[in-house]
Design a protein that fits this description.
Elements (H helix, E strand, L loop, with lengths): L7 H15 L7 E11 L2 E13 L2 E8 L8 H12 L7 E5 L4 E5 L12 H5 L7 H14 L1 H15 L24 H10 L4 E6 L5 H13 L4 E5 L7 H8 L10 H14 L4 E6 L7 H14 L5 E8 L4 H4 L7 H5 L8 H7 L5 E3 L4 H14 L8 H7 L2 H10 L11 H15 L3 H18 L4 E2 H7 L4 H12 L3 E5 L5 E5 L2 H17 L8 H11 L6 H12 L1
Parallel strand pairs: 3-4, 6-9, 6-10, 7-8, 8-9
Antiparallel strand pairs: 1-2, 2-3, 4-5, 11-13, 12-13
């Protein structure tokens, strides 16, 4: 075999390792494809180097191996030096070799070393931790390295999805063992990736599993191409600022997000691949106009790039996004629609989506129920009547929790299920009375400020806060009854989860408000109409209002 046809692995195995062994190093001092975590701001990023050579346990040289036909250039030097700077203890030297040429660099000064160094000079050289060097190394790797971009995106998704999973696995909103690949979703998304369209829209009613589908789709696609994930209600201020924050290395000044997109565009085109940015729950933000403006601006910037956008929105709320006065039809003109629909049909329907997540079909329920039966140790199957109500994915989850280790009754009623679920959640906190007061107060604040999440300090100020409330509050978070978010300014926000429980709490508060009225003032129809007008523009008013009607209908 001519050495020009050798791969990097050939060169490592046949030349580099034997050479290092001949110089007195042993295999225990060599680490191959070394992965290590680097902390940059709030992020933990995984990076990998070809060979890390250590002496007495300390990093000495990072060696990057290139195939023999590759001509070593300045970008290769930047990459090797960046890896050296990102070791747990900075490696003082970085080496690049392609068999025909080998270059050694000082990882602190970035200068090439052309004069011999004694063995003592190697082994005694150490560089102290330097945040400036690490920030520069991360920035260089991002601009140079596709593999680093993939690893970074995985770290970003882990961080952004963290709040979606409960502290305790048994109470987590999402569990891999319960996932069902929804009919047609991955097929439609693969068609979208092959199309020229820029935006994929996933819609569905509350509780049908949009977020679960978004999370699993993002993780699945993320194994193949770079994928970023954002949960819209947890974006502190603006989407652009969140992107800038994610790509801010250490304490360095932020890079404008337009420049970040240009850098990613260059990397993707060089490797002839794509990237997808997922933004979930766009209807659950406090300002619909702000997130709509952000999305439209992002779409404009993605026109000529291989970067695509995937959005999820409750179907009742999509009408709030569809039309924009500044650029009419921008969503419909760039929205992917499967082959069974034309752009003209989409324009006429206006509220149609790329894929709509619905209740389980008969076939899907037959496939997914055994997973719930096993996970929750359910002692019976579903009756015909129970199947009807359990086709709603979130209801199936709630029924499984309520009747865990027990038989599911032949007859199920939605109101009784929610009442029982409410009591079960209260009891799980250790103090039913305090938990009810806590959740009721949160519900009142949600209705008052028309926001799905409230500031933690506002809640504390409105209750006679003591160690008992603190204990219940902490337990509610661990049980995933409450979800806590901290923004980058240090403020904490809390919300009730899942949405079905939030709507139940809102409905209880509305019923209480209605019952406080005098007999003469109790006009059920007028009160329901008043609520619709009062809560207009609040994303969850439809669900809360519908639950109120069910309580009193």
């Amino acid at each position: 075999m001519k050495d020009d046809y050798w791969s990097e692995e050939d060169l490592k195995a046949k030349v580099v390792i034997p050479f290092l062994l001949s110089k007195g190093f042993n295999l225990s001092e060599m680490e191959f494809e070394k992965s290590f975590k680097v902390t940059a701001g709030t992020k933990q990023i995984i990076v990998r180097s070809d060979i890390l050579l250590k002496i007495k346990g300390y990093p000495l040289i990072v060696i990057e191996v290139k195939r023999p036909g590759h001509e070593i250039n300045s970008a290769d030097a930047d990459q090797a030096i960046s890896y050296a700077r990102l070791c747990e203890s900075i490696a003082p030297f970085a080496m690049i070799t392609n068999l025909k040429e080998t270059k050694l660099f000082d990882s602190y000064t970035r200068k090439e070393i052309t004069t011999p160094i004694s063995q003592n000079g190697f082994s005694e050289r150490k560089i102290a931790f330097n945040e400036e060097l690490i920030s520069e190394a991360l920035k260089n790797l991002f601009s140079l390295n596709y593999r680093f971009l993939q690893d970074f995106c995985q770290s970003q998704r882990n961080l952004q999805m963290m709040h979606l999973f409960g502290v305790e696995k048994s109470t987590s909103r999402f569990a891999d063992n319960l996932f069902l690949d929804r009919e047609g979703l991955r097929r439609d998304f693969n068609e979208f990736l092959q199309s020229k369209d820029k935006c994929f829209l996933l819609t569905g009613r509350q509780g049908t599993g949009k977020t679960f589908s978004m999370v699993t789709l993002a993780e699945s696609v993320g194994k193949e191409i770079p994928v970023l994930f954002y949960d819209a209600p947890y974006i502190p201020r603006r989407l652009a600022e969140s992107i800038e924050e994610d790509f801010c290395w250490g304490n360095k000044q932020r890079t404008w997000y337009g420049d970040i997109i240009n850098q990613i565009d260059s990397i993707l085109k060089k490797h002839n691949t794509q990237m997808v940015i997922f933004v979930d729950s766009i209807n659950e933000v406090s300002s619909i106009n702000s997130i709509k403006t952000d999305i439209i601006d992002l779409i404009r910037r993605l026109y000529s790039t291989p970067i695509k956008l995937c959005l999820a929105c409750r179907e009742e709320d999509w009408k709030l996004f569809y039309y924009d006065k500044s650029e009419p039809g921008i969503f419909s003109s760039l929205m992917f629609c499967p082959n069974l629909r034309t752009k003209t049909e989409l324009e006429e329907l206006k509220l149609e989506a790329s894929t709509r997540i619905t209740d389980f079909s008969e076939n899907e329920l037959d496939l997914v129920f055994p997973k719930y039966q096993k996970s929750f140790d359910l002692k019976s199957g579903l009756s015909t009547q129970a199947k009807t109500i359990c086709k709603h994915p979130e209801t199936l989850r709630i029924v499984s929790e309520i009747f865990s280790h027990d038989k599911i009754p032949l007859s199920l009623r939605r109101k009784k299920i929610l009442n029982r679920y409410w009591l079960r959640k209260l009891e799980s906190t250790g103090s039913k009375q305090m938990a009810e007061q806590l959740l009721t107060k949160i519900g009142n604040l949600v209705l008052e400020i028309k926001s799905l999440e409230i500031k933690e300090r506002d809640l504390i100020e409105l209750l006679p806060w003591n160690s008992g409330y603190q204990e219940v509050y902490t337990k509610a978070i661990s049980e995933s009854i409450l979800v806590l978010r901290r923004d980058n300014l240090g403020d904490s926000y809390v919300r009730i989860s899942p949405n079905l429980l939030l709507e139940y709490v809102l409905a209880k508060n509305l019923v209480e408000e209605y019952n406080k009225r005098t007999i003469e003032q109790r006009d059920f129809v007028s009160f329901a109409f008043e609520l619709s007008h009062r809560l207009r523009g609040f994303p969850s008013y439809e669900g809360g209002n519908a639950s109120f009607l069910q309580h009193n209908g």
